[in-house]
Structures are given as structure tokens and as C-alpha cells.
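Internal QA ticket QA-208
Title: Verify multi-chain structure generation after dependency bump
Assignee: T.L.

Test input:
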Amino acid sequence: MAEKFYPTKLLIFVTLLLSINHSEQLQSSLPQTLLRIKRLLNFPSALSSWNSSTDFCSPDSDSSQTVVCYEDTITQLHIIADKRASPLPKNFSTDTFFATLARLPHLKVLTLVSLGIRGPLPGKIARLSSLEIVNMSSNFLYGVIPQELSLLSNLQTLILDDNKLSGELPDWLDSLPALTVLSLKNNLFNGSVPDSVGRLENLRILSLSHNHFYGPVPDLRHLTNLQVLEFDDNAFGPQFPRLGTKLVTLVLRNNSFRSSVPAEVTTFRQLERFDISSNSFVGPFHPALLSLPSITYLNISGNQLNGMLFENLTCSSELQVVDLSSNLLTGSLPECLQSKSSDKTVLYARNCLQDINQNQHLLPFCHTEALAVGILPESKKHKDQSKVGLSTGIVSGILGGVALVALVFFIIRRGNVRSSIKNPPTRLISESATPKYSSKHLSDARYISQTMKMATVGLPIYRTFSVEEIVVATNNFDTSSFMGESSQGQMYRGRLRDGFVVAIRCVKMKKRYSIHYFMHHIELISQLRHRHLVCALGHCFEYYLEDSTVSRIFLVFEYVPNGTLRSWISADRRAKKSLGWTQRIEAAIGVAKGIQYLHTGVVPGIYSNKIKTTDVLMDQNLGAKICSYNLPFLSDMGKVEHGTSSSGSKSPSVNRSAKHEDKSDIYNFGAILQELILGRAAKSRNEVDGLRVLFQASIIGDEEARRSIVDAGVRNSCLDQSLRTIMEICTRCLTKDPAERPSIEDVLWNLQFAAQVQDAWRGESQSSEGSPGSPFEPRRLTFH
Ligand SMILES: *[C@@H]1O[C@H](CO)[C@@H](O)[C@H](O)[C@H]1NC(C)=O
Ligand SMILES: *[C@@H]1O[C@H](CO)[C@@H](O)[C@H](O)[C@H]1NC(C)=O
Ligand SMILES: *[C@@H]1O[C@H](CO)[C@@H](O)[C@H](O)[C@H]1NC(C)=O
Ligand SMILES: *[C@@H]1O[C@H](CO)[C@@H](O)[C@H](O)[C@H]1NC(C)=O
Ligand SMILES: *[C@@H]1O[C@H](CO)[C@@H](O)[C@H](O)[C@H]1NC(C)=O
Ligand SMILES: *[C@@H]1O[C@H](CO)[C@@H](O)[C@H](O)[C@H]1NC(C)=O
Ligand SMILES: *[C@@H]1O[C@H](CO)[C@@H](O)[C@H](O)[C@H]1NC(C)=O
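Actual output:
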């Protein structure tokens, strides 16, 4: 086994080597220099034994101070306070101090620990040109590493832990070719680590823990001597670093790594300590890590590693600590980790393991989470930057407000999607659109009306998000953020940095598509903005590294807080109040306007939205917003596009079916009206049709009979004319022959009429059917 290297061992070794003591008298100036150092350091207790009669070169030394002489010179100076001193007084100057030290020009080893040394590291340090080992930990050094340090060509060890040094690591580090130990823990360094570190071939220890470093780790594969890499508590990432295979200690804890862990780590035969906890690593956990011959400490907690564990896995006998908690591991805990003996710590809570004591995630979470961050190829990578290019065009096109919530999506027929490519970009057209339009124009609109985008103000404009933002917003996809899942992915609640609450849909791609494939989908989604739609605020792509295809799409929607429309009308609602009659018509108008927008506000129209009262969310003003609409690429991306070879012109069959789909939304809307009137949902299409017959009969029957079928909660507050109008339009919407169903404009006109008569009546009678604090403003009618 290769010899391990530790700084203290080196120190002792060097100390022994150099401390062949010559008792010759030092040049008389040397004691003076040392006493001056004592004075400059404000008489630290560590040096209490130094006085004018001290024989500095006697082999006597204690743990707090050591002076090593060789011939007439001092080669080593160690001063170590036993506890960290407070900063030296203001009149202390590092410049003066190092100028004094420079009178010991043969100094090879300098240890000045916990002495309260305050100030920048001066360029004068270069005068100590023989320096090989420097340890100035636990002082109050601040500022940047001086360029002059690069002149110390013999420097092997540089330890400046626990100071307040800042700035970036210099890129001339490779001018210190002998450097074997670089330890800068617990400072304020920032920036990324320069590539030159990867050329320090003698480096054995690299400790940059607890700074503000960020960005990718340079390629360290050529550091064949590297044994200790400590990068914890920074923001390195996202890719797992490339490393030499001789590592003994690898600590990447609490950074921003988001890649998978390469299987290569299982070939690091000398690995003793492996800590990648508190990152966002994904992909498989390699059980072979457990059986590495020297492994004693293994901590992968707080990631999203998955994979199945088996009872028959083998573990190294050296293992003392194994922490697998908070991942997505499945299977059973290996037997070799189950020992009850207390000499081993084994933690595995918050996974998806079977039959064990420590708390595991609930099954639904395991199922969905495992899906969400499922097995990704080795080199998965998130390339956030490339999204910018994509979205610039989109964003520039969408300066309107946005509104939304996320929930359910459908599939737009590929024919529609396809034809959208051929159409000129709708946003260009929209700029010249006139806000005045007749409903006739609307029915074959080729533009997005500005009017239709109204009232989405207050929402941020559409933009791209970085994976980091998504991760932060969802608290790393924490269980508590999980809202639910559908066939098209998982839904998470998130809070953006500015406090804005969003719903994030996470869609995992079944097939590999390049980003270009999604551009027109994204463009369409970005344009869907309407006060009665839960609109997308932005998106984020996650890529596979190898070929830059998309692995996941995150769609960020506005979060609509007030539950579904159904929860406001259904009989079994708990705490919530039921909507009054006017509020129900208002909600229906909202849904109808949303449908109208989906059909005519975008090109191509979005049909077959299959909207139910559970697909409509209520905002804080009880405004209705459709959350589940037929969003293009949530359709099965895996389907082969048969239409690819077609010329792109719409075939007659596409046209015909588009017409039917338009009317299928009308039918579903009729069912919503029915639910609003009855106060309950029909259980089947048959029941809907049966109720339609009942409605039809009651419309021509007497008022008494008509009212008797209405939800008791609104039975006495609705004006008969209003009720009849709604029942009539409801019945027409549910007509069997799609061609006979009314247009959405017709529906809207009738709803508005019903609201108007109700309003007028309510105004006259002063009777109020809503609560006194009804959130609705008196509605003003707008007939075209
Ligand atoms: C620096 O010196 C102090 C005092 O001897 C020691 O405790 C510490 O471990 C040294 N630092 C390193 C990184 O070896
Ligand atoms: C710094 O000031 C203190 C008093 O605050 C004094 O005792 C000490 O001698 C001064 N040190 C130097 C190096 O001037
Ligand atoms: C110097 O210190 C030694 C003990 O470390 C002590 O015995 C001696 O008296 C001191 N000499 C002076 C001049 O203070
Ligand atoms: C690093 O921090 C300093 C302040 O200490 C700041 O001026 C500088 O811009 C930062 N550099 C980077 C790359 O963040
Ligand atoms: C993670 O690292 C950051 C510095 O990058 C630090 O502020 C934070 O306290 C660390 N978190 C934990 C849990 O150690
Ligand atoms: C594993 O790492 C986590 C986070 O970094 C830490 O909180 C935990 O204590 C570690 N587990 C063990 C057993 O050391
Ligand atoms: C361990 O068990 C699994 C299933 O329980 C089996 O597939 C695998 O072959 C076993 N491996 C060994 C080395 O026995």
C-alpha cells in the first residue's frame, strides 16, 4: 500500500532532518531578532520563556515554541499559541513583522499559529526565499494572496487555514512546482479554482473547505499524487470532479454538485473517507464503494442517489460510518450494515428501503421521486446557459403579463403542433392586432388579441430558469414541496427567491430530443397568457451531457392558492363556503373565456382540453383559472411523429377533427354548468346525458319544479330567468351532435345575459345572495 502523507508527519520528518543541532553560538543579531519578534507579537505567553539569556539553539523546546538551528542560522521557527489569540493591537503591522522575519533568511519552516496576527500577507514574504513550509493558521490575515509568493520556488507546504483571506486563487500557482500541500480552509476566497492547480503534479493535499469558491473543479486527473481533496462547504459543481485514483480522502460535502457519481470512484482502492453529502447528486449509488478495501467513512446523505441495495452486498471490514440517509435508495439494507454492534454507525433514514427501522419515505413519494430523478446516464449535465439563447427570442416576444398555475396538461395533436411551425410567429402578428374584434373575427383569429391577454399583470414575464433556481425553490425537491403527480410528471410547490410562489411541473422526457425540437412548443406556452388560464412563468431544460438532448423540462407556473372550482360547489366540501349563484355564473364565464382564448387566442387553437371542475383553480378573488389544458409537449413525447413526412398542410381530416374537438370542449363545459347548477358532479357521461333530459323538461315546466333540482345552497337566491338561461345553454352544450352545440361566443353571450339579469334583479331587490364580503365587484357587462 502506498505510503500516506500527512502534513504533521512531514513536519516531524523535516524537523528531525533539520534539527541536527549545532551548538555554535548564533550570530549575536539573531537573538535580538527573535526578541524583537516576541515584542512585535505583543509578548505572547507562548514565548514567555524567551529572554536575553536564552540559548535559542539548545535542543530544548516545548510544544508552544521551537527554534531549530543549523550551523549559524535558524532554519525553523515554530510559535504556536495554545488557544486562538485575539487580534493584535492596531499598531501591529504585518509588513514590519515580515521585515523582521526577513533577518532570518535561511528560514525553511515557519509556523505562526493562533497568534492574533492581523493584516494582509505582505509581499515581503518573498524575502524568505528558502521557505519550504508555512503554517499561519488561525490568525487574522486578510486580503489577497500576494503575487510575490510566486517567488518562493521551494515552497512545499502552504497552510493558511482559519484566516480572512479573500479574492480569487491566483492562476500562477503552478510557478510553485514543489507544492505538495495547499490548505486554505475557512477563509473568504471566492471565484473558481484556476486550471493551474491541475498542473501541481506534486500536490498531495488540497483543502479548500469552507470558502466561497464556485464553479467547475478543474481537471485534476494528472495529480497522480493527490491523496486528500477537501472541498466541502463551497459552491463547486455541477459536475463530479475528474480525479486521480490515489485518493485517500475525498470530501465534497455541501456544494452544488448535480451530476451522477462516476463508477470510476469504485476503483479508488485507497479511499478511506468518501463524503459527498448535501449535494444534488443523482443517478445510481455504487454499492461497490462499501467494499473498497480501506473505506472507513462513507457519507452520501442528502442527495438524490437511487438504485437498489441487496442484502447480500459485501462491506469492507474497515467501515465505521455509513450514512446513506435522504436519498432514493430502494431494496433492502445490506446485511453487513445491519450489525447491532455499536462500533459502527449506520444511518439510512429517508430512503425508499424496505422492512427497516429508520423512517423511510412514503411509498407514493418514492414512486414519483424515483421517477423524477430516475436513472440518468453517467454524464448527465445541466447546461443552463444554452437556454438563454433559446429563450431570448421567446421572451422578447412576450412582454405581456403572465398568469398561471400549474396542473394538468394535455396533448395537442401533432398536426396542430406541426402546423404552428408553418405559421408565421404569432407574436409578430399580435403586435399589429387591433384590440377591436367581432366574435366572427375571433372564430378564425390568426392573432393574439391584446385584449385577451389583459389582466395577467402582476405576474413576472416569461423567462428561463436555471436548474439551481428550481432546486432552491423546491428545497431540492423536498417531500414537503411535493404536490402530486399525473402521467405527465410531478408537481412541486416552490418559492422563488423574490418570494413569489409557483407550481413547478417536472416532465421527464421518454425520448431524446434536441432543444430545437421544443422551441416552438415553448414559444407557444410562453404566449399562453390569459387571466383565466394558469399560465407558465417560464421553463428550464436539463440536458444529457453526451448529446445535449433534453432529459427533463421544468415548467414553472403561477401558484393559485384557493383550491379547485369543485371544492367550492361540491356538497361534501369541508371548511370552504359554497359559491353563490352570481359567483357561479362568474366562474363559468371565466372558464368560458379561458376556453375561448385556448380556441381562438393562439394559432393553432388548443382543443380537446377535457376540462372538469377539478381542472379549474380559484384565485384569491375567486376568479376561475383553467389549470389543465392541452399543453403541447406534455403529450407523449415518445410517440413517433408519423406526420413528419407530410407536407405540413392541414389535411381535411385534421380540419374536421379540429372542429369536433372545438365542440368537445363545449360539451365538457356543459357538464361544468350542470355541476354548478346541481351542486354535485355527475358520475358518468350517461348520468350527464340523463340529467340533460331532466333539465330540458324542467325548462318548459313550472318554476317550482325547476328550482327543485337546483343546489339547495343557491336555490332561493337565483332569479328564475337567470336560472332558465343557464339551464338552456347548458342543455344546448350537451347536445349529442357536436355540430349542434353552440359556439363558445354564443355560450359566453348567454352566460353574460344570465349574470346581467341576476345582477339587475339583485340590485333592485337589494337582496344579497353572496356573503356580505363577497369578493366580487358588481360585474359590468360587455356585449360585443
Ligand atoms: C498548522 O499548525 C498547527 C500547529 O502545529 C497544527 O495544529 C495544524 O494541524 C497545522 N496545519 C496543518 C494543515 O497541518
Ligand atoms: C502597540 O501599542 C501598545 C499599546 O496599545 C504598546 O504596548 C505596544 O508596545 C505597541 N507595539 C508596537 C510594536 O508599537
Ligand atoms: C530567562 O528565563 C529563564 C527561564 O526560562 C530564567 O531562569 C532566567 O532567570 C531568565 N533570565 C532573565 C535575565 O530574565
Ligand atoms: C470575490 O470577492 C471580492 C470581495 O471580497 C469581490 O470584490 C469580487 O468581485 C469577488 N469575485 C468574484 C469572482 O466573485
Ligand atoms: C454549506 O456551506 C455554506 C458555505 O458555502 C455554509 O454557509 C453553510 O453553513 C454550509 N451548510 C452546512 C449545513 O454546513
Ligand atoms: C453525513 O453528512 C451530513 C451532511 O453533511 C451530516 O449532517 C451527517 O452528520 C453526516 N453523517 C455522519 C454519520 O457523519
Ligand atoms: C444478491 O442477491 C440478488 C437478489 O437478491 C441476486 O440477483 C444477486 O445475484 C446476488 N448476488 C450475489 C453476489 O450473490
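Spot checks passed. The pocket of 2-acetamido-2-deoxy-beta-D-glucopyranose (ligand 3) is lined by residues 49, 51-54 (CB under 6 Å).
Status: verified.
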